[in-house]
Amino acid sequence: MLSKGNDPPMAANHRDTVVAHMMKPGVVQIPGDVSVTEAASLMERERMPCLLVKDTESSYGLMTPRDIVRKVVAQGLEPDAIAVRTIMTQPVQFIEYDRLVDEASTLMMSSGSPILIVTKENLPVGVLTVRDLILSPQRGAVQIPAVIQVLEGSDPPREYQAVIVQLSHVGALVQSLLSLLPDTPVLLSFSLPNFVTPLTIRGTVVAQPVRIGDAGDTVRPPQSTTEIQFSDLAPSDQSTIKAWMLQNATNSRDVP
C-alpha cells in the first residue's frame, strides 16, 4: 500500500549509510477530517516536522508548518474551521528504511519533496527531511566500550561487555560475544569520549548478527555484530550524540 514500486528491499550494508541511520523515528498519523488547529497542536507537542494524513485507504498527504502558513495564515482563514485534507501536500514520497541515503537524496531532488516518510514492510516508521541530510552526521566509525543489558529472559537483566563500532543518533552497530535475535529489547550503556555524563539508551535489535571472527581462531572467540535501533531517546541525548559525531566521528565509508 505504501511501497513505491515492486523492487525488493535492499539489504542493509554496514559500510554505507542507510535511511534508518538518519531518519527521525516515529510517524504521527491523523485522519483527513482533523482541524488544522488540532493538527498543529499535535505536531508541536510531538515535535514532528510533519504529520502523515491518511484521508482514505489509498490517499495520503503531509501537513507541514509551511502548509499552515501559506494555505491558512496567509489567506486569513480560520484554522478551526478547516480540515487538514484541504491543505495537505500530495503526493507523499515513501522510502524503505534500508535504502541508501544517496537514494533518498535522489528521490528528494527528482520529486521536489523535502520530506520522505520512511517505511518498513509498508508500515510508516520514521521521517527523513532534507534538513536531516544536511545537518545530521553520517553513520560514523568509532571504538566506544559499552555494556548491553538484555531486557528479557532474566531478572535482573544480564549485562554483557561490548564495543560500539558504528554510531548515529538513531542507532548503533555493536560488537560482542553475544548473539541476539531481531526484536530483542536491550539497554545500551556507554560514555562518549570527553563527555562526563554516561548514556543509557533503550533499543531494539533490528538485524541478525553477523560473525566476524576467523573460524580457526583458537585464541579468542569470534565476535558478532549486532544492529541496535534506539527507541525513546531523549532530545537532549539525541543532540549530544549528534554534536559528538559531527566533531569526532569518521565517516564509515572511509573505513577499510
Structural notes for this entry:
By secondary structure, this protein is an alpha+beta fold. It folds into 2 domains: 19-135, CBS-domain (Roll); 140-251, Thrombin, subunit H (Beta Barrel). Helices cover 21% and strands 31% of the residues. The chain has 6 helices and 15 strands. The strands form 3 sheets. It has a 6-stranded antiparallel β-barrel with strand order 8-9-10-14-12-11. The radius of gyration is 20 Å and the shape is elongated. Mean pLDDT is 81; it is low at 1-15, 208-221 and 250-256.
- Please provide the ordered H/E string of secondary-structure elements: HEEHEEHEHEEHEEEEEEEHE
**Structural category:** alpha+beta
Tell me how many strands there are: 15
In what order do the strands lie side by side in the largest sheet?
8-9-10-14-12-11
Distance between the termini: 39 Å
Let me know the largest β-sheet. Answer: 6 strands, antiparallel, barrel
Estimate the global geometry from the Cα principal axes: elongated
Strand-residue proportion: 25-35%
**Which CATH architecture of the largest domain is right?**
Roll
CATH class designation of the largest domain: Alpha Beta
CATH superfamily assignment of the largest domain? CBS-domain
Poorly predicted tracts of residues: 1-15, 208-221, 250-256
CATH topology description of the largest domain: CBS-domain
Helix content: 10-25%
Number of helices: 6
Provide the gyration radius in Å.
20 Å
Give the averaged pLDDT, no decimals.
Answer: 81
**Number of spatially distinct domains:** 2
